[in-house]
């Protein structure tokens, strides 16, 4: 399994080299969900401490957080004009690999580092006895987006989702779906289930949910790489979203901000009395039960994929920014600390709701801010 993972990462890095970095720069008065246009942007930009930050800051990884990164960079670039931040949304697996190989200053990942990756970071990315650590910055519900003509309200539970994505349920008028949706006019239409082709933290979290909530129906090991047979694949959150939007009968999992352009989001039946809608507010109710399980400065979280509280949405992810606790490259350290300090700040976290995400709970983001200030 480790060999397969490394092979997939090598292929992903090849794609990274070909595609190049996506430069995210200031977009003038582009709306980030705040009111007041340029004056609001200027006010927020004025609160950013650029310090000695300058030069290019290379980063890559999670595509799920791209819309959050876009919003942050618009504000940060307006304040810190001597920094050009290039974030390439290659997927969590490729982003972690690029960071471990010293190609980027930080990585975005929707899964916390495993023990093998932390050990590798001590030999490669981090010097002076440092190691890679996880800093939770973005909370997001994983929406199950679907495109079924005539069906605007769809409820599914974990066992049914597991069977759909394992090619055990193949038509939208299947009895199991009909029982969950007695008032829906389900068409006689083939299900087109899409999954991620790249190593993805979104896949990791989605399969952890299926494994935890439907253990009798999902027999695959959770992970960044898709293991189930059948279905179709696409690269990145934007890739699967595009396929669902243009394919009648399609369904896939993606960060909620990608559920748009003709798609609807599935409501999830949990142990609560009512099915739960995918919203940032409902994701926050679930994430509030998360526990810090990392050691030292590492702030990796353990999530609860089977909440029973009313309104707690069970399929969530946390995107981590991955950096070295010490031994970061001297030329990029000021920009890394400046940017991460901003996105962990009250202003930075305040942009997340308008971008379709949820802020990190207060007791956790306070620890993140302290850790960022101590990076060396």
From TrEMBL:
Stretch forming the signal peptide: 1-23
Domain PBP: residue ranges: 53-346
Pfam families, sorted: PBP_like_2
UniProt entry keywords in alphabetical sequence: Phosphate transport, Signal, Transport
Low complexity: bias regions: 228-240
Superkingdom of the source species: Bacteria
Record InterPro entries: ABC_phos-bd_PstS (IPR005673), PBP_domain (IPR024370), Phosphate-bind_PstS (IPR050962)
Region of interest (Disordered), residue spans: 221-240
PANTHER family xref list: PHOSPHATE-BINDING PROTEIN PSTS
UniProt family annotation: Belongs to the PstS family.
Name the UniProt record assigns to this protein: Phosphate-binding protein
UniProt organism field: Streptomyces nigra
Classification of source organism: Bacteria, Bacillati, Actinomycetota, Actinomycetes, Kitasatosporales
Annotated gene: pstS
